[in-house]
Design brief:
With 134 residues, this protein is of the alpha+beta class. It is built from 3 helices and 5 strands.
Amino acid sequence: MRKNRQSSRLRTVTLLVPEDFAEGFRQLAFEVRARQAVGKDGAKIGWHKLNRIAEILTDLECCGRCMVYDTGASGDERFHWAVTVFGDNQVAAGHTADLADARSQAEARLAAYVADLGRTAQYQRIRSRKVGDA
């Protein structure tokens, strides 16, 4: 195993962090491994299979990530989807019976989150101008 890590230039790192930040670092490590799996620069756009049950879509501009995984359950609980944004953690999640529907819902929630960020930034710019004029 050690030889394989050296050949792929991966290293095991142990960090001592506050408990509240541990999940964020796990997500960051997950994303780094996912980027390596899709290419060194992570420039490939679209859904990428991480393993036999999980897929990921990463938006490098907003640091957002959509994940879908097959829970193995039947019916509406089959596919779990989640949207996470670095700094805000999970911003949306749900379940559906269909893989394509799970991807679509995750993408829509990420797009809505990014659009809301844009509106928030625009509002803050307008508000700061009004405060500066007063």
